[in-house]
Amino acid sequence: MVPSAAFARIALLLLLVSVPLLPTPARAQLPAAVDGQPLPSLAPMLKQVTPAVVNIQSRSVVRVRDPLMDDPFFRRFFGLPGTPRERVRQSLGSGVVVDAERGLVLTNNHVIEGADDISVTLADGRVLEAEYVGSDEDTDVALVRIPADDLSAIRLADTDAIQVGDFVVAVGNPFGLGQTVTSGIVSALGRSGLSGLGYQNFIQTDASINPGNSGGALVNLRGELIGINTAIFNPSGSRGGNIGIGFAIPANLARRVMQQLLTFGEVRRGSLGVEAQDLDAALAETLGIMDRRGALVTRVFENTPAATAGLRAGDVITAIDTQPILDRDALHNAEGLLPVDRDAQLTLTRDGREITLPVRLTTDSGRYAGGSLDARLAGASFSELPEKWRQQGATGVRIATVKDNSRAAALGLQPDDLLVAINRRPLDGLADLRRLGGRLPEQALLSIQRGRRVLPLLLQ
Q: Is CATH 2.60.40.10 correct for 159-264?
């Protein structure tokens, strides 16, 4: 008698022999179409886009000093050299080729900031050395150039036309993994108020953006660049992962910054030439403004775009072009993003009536010549602090430029020094310099901050 287990095995074998073998596909595939309709796919668009998105690696050498090494007795006693140690700092990010003929690549300032060497890895594996063209810390936009040999570029879209709900795709190099694509929608427009960043007018998206995506592309479904991915929001801090709140610099803003970097090597901003403050409940009621939105002008400086346009103290600025102005910070933000030498419309409330005034910012309206303050400072120019510096606690005004062989250069002033006080009276911005207007005393003590040190400079 055949055991039951053996009988079962024999029956299974006979069954397999009697059933004809069916062909098995090598791998599972989605059908090309369902009911005659092709399945939607981003693949054709991405084939055009991804060759233009690059990986960027920057390298900088940082000198590290030990306080004991600064003590000559300690060095002599132990026979140690006084040369500071060095360490190499590396940064990984992404970039976007926006001009194939000239080899221009847009990225974030924080990706290449302070770099001694910048290398770009293309999607086809080529590694190219990049030339630094310029950067703007306030908008976190930077521009580099690579050899223009068989490159692909992405066309920049007009971001004034995008809307909340538009589908978008983010392409970058998250965590150094290599080129990665994520999708989502435009979640909001005109975002600002992010800590640690300068002038802000961000596109918010829920397309997954992570460390390493910085400088990468945010594109629409036509494969046009609508933004440069730059930041994420996470309540858990820098160690937290993506939670679906990412921010990109609009392509229109990046385009304006790029044009100025190519032309001047820097971004030249203007200033309306006003002091302003937020509206509180009492002021809003007095001025007949029900929603307490706007920036109250408290002073208009002479020979500025605001004075030329006819602004007055007591006006409440509620919009610049089509952008609402909610408070003083919003005014400062919009002012810094206005292109120079182009007309804009100010909407304001005056004596209970809404009026509009045309205004044009000039290229040099954001600078104050040192010679206008005092002849002994001729050759230097002063500007407002970058917003990022203010958020980090810096005060005063920035020394923007110092001409070679000038009186300011002979005093030892350097670009990016901060003038923080005059005769121990703190400065809060260019408004304080304009208020002095060439009336420094014969002996004036300037407090100059350079790095972490404050240096006294006596004019006499």
A: no
CATH superfamily of 274-360: PDZ domain (2.30.42.10)
CATH superfamily of 367-459: PDZ domain (2.30.42.10)
CA dihedral (175, 178, 181, 187) in degrees, to 10, reads 30
Is 110 assigned a catalytic role? yes
Q: State the sign of the Cα–Cα–Cα–Cα dihedral 392, 398, 403, 407.
A: negative
- Give the three-class secondary structure for 391: helix
| Assessment of whether the complete model's pTM goes beyond 0.90 | no
Q: Which tokens in the block code for residue 151?
A: 């490159």
| 332 is known as an active-site residue | no
The series of mean pLDDT values per 10 residues for the chain, 460 residues long, is 46 42 47 67 89 88 54 55 61 89 92 86 90 87 91 91 92 81 90 70 87 88 92 60 80 89 81 83 78 85 85 91 82 78 88 89 71 83 79 85 85 91 87 73 88 87
**Of 58, 214, 365, 383, which one is the catalytic site residue?**
214
The percent of the chain in helix, strand and coil, each rounded to the nearest 5, is 25, 35, 40
CATH number of the 47-145 domain: 2.40.10.10
DSSP state at residue 175: G
Rounded CA separation 181/399 (Å): 42
- Decide if 140 is catalytic: yes
Q: What residues contact residue 208 under an 8 Å CB cut-off, 6+ apart?
A: 170, 174, 182, 184, 242, 244, 246
Q: Which of 99, 136, 140, 374 is catalytic?
A: 140
CA nearest to 338, candidates 318, 315, 322, 350 = 322
Question: Catalytic one among 110, 187, 315, 365?
Answer: 110
